[in-house]
Amino acid sequence: DLSAHLRPGDNRIELTGGAGALLRLTGSHWLPWPQAQPRTAPELRYSVKYSRLQSSIGDLVRCTVEAERIGFRGYGMMLAEVALPPGVEADRASLEKLPVNNYEVLADRVVFYLWPKAGGMKFDFLVRPRMAMTAKSGTSVLYDYYNPESITEVPPVLWTVR
Question: CA-based Rg of the chain, rounded to a whole angstrom?
Answer without folding.
Answer: 20
